[in-house]
Amino acid sequence: MIEPSSIISGMSFPKIGVVVSTTRPSRIGPKVAEWVSQLAPYDAQVEIVDLAEVALPFLEDHAVPAAGDYDRPSTIAWSQRVRGYDALVLTVAEYNGGYPAVLKNALDTLKQEWAGMPVAVVGYGWGGAAAATAALGTVLDRLRMVRLDGPGLRFGEDLSTEGEILADAPEDAVRGLYDQLLAAVRESQPAA
């Protein structure tokens, strides 16, 4: 279950992790995640979660994730970090019609932490990452996350191949996605 939001000066501000789903040295994921994080509303705490820095080994725990009996320090740390967020925004690159393996591993390493967590998806690639986000949607639904599909950024229209955000990038669509995400967070938290 989602833990309560962080409290600042007596007010509740949802904590949102914006996930960089790529680890290649030539990646543009950090630029996309930074742009997405800058569009967050003032009443949300946003933190970039770079899976390259998280550096999870591939499914190393002895027990299956559904058991929640983690024995590897990396998995325990990942679980604690995920439980510290009220919601996530996944920035998703498209690799050969799919999404990055490091993102699949990050999702598959845990189980119970995902149930009921609101998650927004912003794809990017030549086709706006349509195939990648469709494939990812199946996994997010299986994990029982509250999935919100966002825009797909296209190279040459919304961003350059170097990751520079262009003037036509869908800022309003991302802001609207945050509105939906915050509404989902409010709905998922117990009444005071």
UniProtKB/TrEMBL annotation:
GO cellular component, one term: cytosol
Superkingdom to which the source organism belongs: Bacteria
GO molecular function, one term: oxidoreductase activity
Gene3D superfamilies linked: 3.40.50.360
Domain NADPH-dependent FMN reductase-like residue range list: 14-150
InterPro entries referenced in this protein's UniProt entry, alphabetically: Flavoprotein-like_sf, FMN_Rdtase-like_dom, NAD(P)H-dep_reductase
Protein name according to UniProt: NADPH-dependent oxidoreductase
Species assigned in the record: Ornithinimicrobium avium
